[in-house]
Design brief:
Blueprint: H1 6-11, H2 26-32, H3 41-48, H4 55-84, H5 88-97, H6 99-112, H7 118-133, H8 137-152, H9 155-167, H10 180-187, H11 195-204, H12 222-230
Helix pairs in contact: 2-3, 4-7, 5-6, 6-7, 6-8, 7-8, 9-11, 10-11
């Protein structure tokens, strides 16, 4: 039997005895006239706002969203395959064999499906690859930290990091009452309006030095260079899975 179209599923009345018509899914079924098993609570909330006449549009939106999420996950996996030399089956075998890697995989994929920035998707794939080849708990713990930082990155963070890296160590002349973000805004207007958060993020995560504790010098750290390279097309170079771990 062929798969029902979106329109057919929308026009089909909900079967209250169906597995999809549960306490959690029932409101969706009644709201848009279609069974949607395994829905996210946010989807349940949105669906309550959708009238039956708009059900087809909702189903189409959900299908397109799921396809985007699949594409993003595949981009991460593709980069992991490239970095490790494993095929997809080999990656999943490694993930299944190690509980900590499975946890890392799930955490990175949760970030990936909400990410449309391709550089970040590739960086997530490289982090997963490093987790797969980590040869000690210490190395893997470092990879998890790297994964957390990459998961929180947005383009303004990377633009600021790249600009600071290109300029090299220098004294920005900050006063105790100045915020790094304010200086970034005046010096690198291309970063965008969220410079206060960008500056705080870079310092908080050890990606740049804090001028107030580094003799007034602002520079990118080894960890910052490592994270920056993860978001670029080139090989990241340093290997947090190696014996030395990621740069401090």
């Amino acid at each position: 039997m062929g798969r029902a179209s979106s329109a057919d599923r929308v026009n089909r009345k909900c079967d209250r005895s169906s597995p999809a018509h549960t306490d959690g899914d029932g409101p969706i079924c009644e709201a848009i006239g279609v069974e949607l098993p395994d829905v996210h609570p946010v989807e349940a909330f949105i669906a309550r706002l959708v009238s039956p006449s708009r059900g087809e549009a909702w189903v189409k939106f959900r299908e397109e969203t799921l396809q985007r999420q699949r594409d993003r996950a595949l981009e991460v996996l593709g980069e992991t395959e490239r970095a490790t030399g494993l095929d997809a089956e080999g990656v999943f075998d490694a993930v299944r064999d190690q509980e900590q890697v499975a946890d890392l995989f799930l955490a990175l994929m949760e970030v990936a499906i909400r990410t449309r920035w391709h550089d970040k998707l590739r960086a997530l794939g490289r982090v997963l690859a490093q987790g797969l080849v980590a040869d000690s708990d210490t190395a893997f713990d470092s990879t998890e930290v790297i994964g957390r930082i990459v998961g929180e990155l947005f383009p303004p963070h990377v633009r600021a990091l790249a600009l600071i890296s290109e300029r090299g160590p220098f004294n920005p002349g900050l006063r105790p009452t100045d915020a790094l973000g304010d200086w970034l805004s005046g010096t690198f207007p291309g970063i965008g309006p969220a410079t206060t958060e960008v500056g705080a993020f870079l310092i908080r995560n050890g990606l740049v030095t804090n001028p107030f504790y580094a003799n007034g010098v602002l520079r990118i750290t080894d960890l910052g260079e490592f994270i920056l390279n993860l978001t670029r097309e080139t090989d990241p170079g340093a290997d947090p899975a190696g014996s030395g771990g990621p740069p401090a």
